[in-house]
Design goal:
The structure is a single chain. With 103 residues, this protein is α+β, with helices and mostly antiparallel strands. It has one domain. Helix content is 15%, strand content 32%. The strands form 2 sheets. It has a 4-stranded mixed β-sheet. The chain is globular.
Length: 103
Amino acid sequence: MLKNSKVLILMAEEYMVNQLEMLTVWIPDRMKPGMIFPLDKPIDHPQRPHDPFWAVLACPECGTTGLVSRLQVAGLCAVICGTDLCSAEFFLRGDGIVPRKPM
């Protein structure tokens, strides 16, 4: 029982990189946590035409890639990882990544 408890505690401890790393050439295999690749041109979002997607970001916690919007890149809206296994919420601030504080 104690061994399982330790495993749960270790799984609950999460690590998030705190610096963005710019990728200038799209090589999906090179995307690691905290890497961002700016898109050549914004991709419109049908439900949010005022806030198009501007970049591909690898979650700074789990490394899953996803699109981030103009407001998220500007640090005005939080980024939330889209996977079921990761609960990372953070802001992009310049070249840094700042975890979102609990409310």
